[in-house]
Design a protein that fits this description.
The protein is built from nine helices and four strands, in the order ββαααβααααβαα. By secondary structure, it is mainly α. The protein has one domain. Strands 1-2 form a two-stranded antiparallel ribbon.
Length: about 180
């Protein structure tokens, strides 16, 4: 789905596939029960335990997708177009376009919230890059390539700076 974003006098263009949007369509409860999350949670637990068993402190990072970062800045998205686009992967959309759009907006942070709550519950070091990416977007920085899910060089700088800042706040030498 192509999107135009103008922030701080700079215009950037983005596009992403329907699957990326579908991930952000579901509620936190629905995501917590999904096979994708349950499998991911097991992997996170195994990685954390392996690191701890070997005397390391794992740090997990939530990396937001392009639509997670871009949609809040895309202005007034046409509800019908958004629903039709989502319909490529979500076959049983029964709500009005406006309700579908609102569900997307309401659930944008569901994946991140589940991930971060999991980290908090298990007392794992976790960092979300979403606030840093949003801040960069507000400043007019194009953090993702237009037709790619990867970060631009500027996006990589934002991420590197945020990760470095986060790591300096941790006492990684202190035993568990």
């Amino acid at each position: 789905m192509p999107m135009k974003v103008t922030q701080n006098g700079k215009t950037s263009y983005y596009a992403f596939d329907p699957k990326r949007l579908a991930y952000l369509f579901h509620t936190e409860d629905a995501f917590k029960q999904s096979k994708e999350w349950l499998a991911t949670e097991k992997i996170i637990d195994a990685m954390a335990q392996l690191a701890i068993n070997n005397g390391s402190k794992p740090v997990f990072v939530y990396v937001p997708s392009t639509p997670h970062v871009v949609i809040p800045f895309a202005g007034d998205l046409p509800a019908r177009q958004l629903q039709r686009f989502l319909g490529y992967v979500e076959k049983n959309l029964r709500d009005t376009p406006e309700k579908t759009k609102q569900a997307i907006l309401d659930n944008l942070d569901s994946l991140e919230n589940v991930f971060m709550a999991n980290c908090t519950t298990k007392q794992l070091h976790c960092l979300s890059l979403t606030p840093a990416m949003h801040q960069a977007m507000q400043q007019g920085v194009q953090t993702y390539y237009s037709y790619d899910q990867h970060w631009t060089p500027e996006g990589n700088k934002v991420v590197a700076q945020k990760v470095a800042e986060y790591l300096t706040t941790l006492d990684l030498h202190k035993p568990f």
